[in-house]
């Protein structure tokens, strides 16, 4: 692991196995995404970003548009950062990259976040999201609740 700031670029199908490996690390009590799930998202044309430290994928994030103009909407599907690389601003940079894509389409953005994930919720609030709902037992199989959060497009 180097001290350099990871580069952000497009997630590739070749990254799917590493994404699935990180999912198992990051979301062990729930239903982590598989490599085929990541490949499906990319093949569907959704916008996914990668954070890389050299050749090592250390983070990923994805966004899908669910409605087009004039009332565009997007959903953030996932954001994950290798535990060894957390608290370095990588998740924030990935999120900002997705938000730039959504803002270019003037899209309102939604996401779900575990109610007990204070760090993630604070990050989203810092980037303009507000809690608009609660989904009881949203995450499976843990049964953890989720906040639904919303962000209006940047002016």
UniProtKB/TrEMBL annotation:
InterPro entries reported for this sequence: AcTrfase_RimI/Ard1, Acyl_CoA_acyltransferase, GNAT_dom, YpeA/RimI_acetyltransf
Signal peptide segment: none
Catalyzed reactions per annotation: N-terminal L-alanyl-[ribosomal protein bS18] + acetyl-CoA = N-terminal N(alpha)-acetyl-L-alanyl-[ribosomal protein bS18] + CoA + H(+)
Keyword Transmembrane among record annotations: no
Keyword annotations: Acyltransferase, Cytoplasm, Ribonucleoprotein, Ribosomal protein, Transferase
Location of this chain's protein in the cell: Cytoplasm
UniProt keyword Ribosomal protein, yes or no: yes
Enzyme Commission identifier(s): 2.3.1.266
GO cellular component, one term: ribosome
Residue span, N-acetyltransferase domain: 6-150
Example GO molecular function: protein-N-terminal-alanine acetyltransferase activity
PANTHER family per record: ACETYLTRANSFERASE, ACETYLTRANSFERASE YPEA
Protein name from the UniProt record: [Ribosomal protein bS18]-alanine N-acetyltransferase
